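Human: Note token order:
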Amino acid sequence: MSIHKVAVLALDGVIPIDLAIPAQVFAPRPQSPYDLTMCSVTGQVATSAGFELAVDGRLDQVRAADTVIVPGFDPPLTTLPEEVLGVLVEARDQGRRLVSICNGTFALAAAGVLDGLHATTHWQHVDDLKRVFPAVHVDRDVLYVDEGNVLTSAGMCCGIDLCLHIVRRDVGAVAANEVARRLVAAPHRDGSQAQYVPTPVAAPDDTSLAATREWALERLGQPLSLADLARHASMSQRSFMRRFTAEAGTTPLQWLVTSRLNLARELLETTGLPIDQVARDCGLGSAANLRLHFRRALDTTPTVYRRTFTTRSPSVISVA
């Protein structure tokens, strides 16, 4: 079986949580296609938290990887060794997949990998990224950016969203959802959602809308309107809309569409149901509507998606 090699390149000042995210998402598991190696320049890495890590892999393992992930590091405008920049350029030129988490984006930008591409980073550093690297098209209000073989994420936890997006892209929604369950993470957040939510945590006397979201997830096959959701939350539609967007970083109806598409992907991967039945069961109504949403969100069709993820060996991945 063909194994997909993932190298996580830890730079001095690496942020521990950013390093842990790919280590958990791409950890070896039964039937997992990923072989993960932690890498560094010298074998010893100073973290932003004040302790050091011993790392087995070196730059040779980075050169041999199919996917190279650069976690965030502090400070992000540190001058990086030429050998680090060189190995990133080499990976780009050889068609490898390059991924950054949080302000690891600065390493890809310093190597010129992001020139002419859209990218993002932690909201606190987007202005610096735009100022220092004007050739990069900086998207300031997204969770992550997928430019094919170059992917960047915003701050910390957005790295979980991006890594799950990669698993979903590689081996399908079922595998990604299983990893999300292990991490107790949201199974899917669309990259275009806002990364900075002004009021991300409810006040002590407030009630989170998590129960309403869970209620809706159990009824995706049914017609659900903004009025239905607001009624379940015992709120006016206007207040519900404002509160939901503040909590989830997206509108209720866009969240519903994304959740229904995720369910449709699971049904296509795991059942032989006709396309029109999948459309009804996930709440998108008709095969034509399902095809429309698949084309808009995934640039493919339900039939092609099903064929891809039911005939592909889970251990064979192409990043081209």
DSSP finds 14 helices and ten strands in the chain. Residues 252-270 form the longest helix (19 residues). Confidence is low (pLDDT under 50) at residues 191-206.
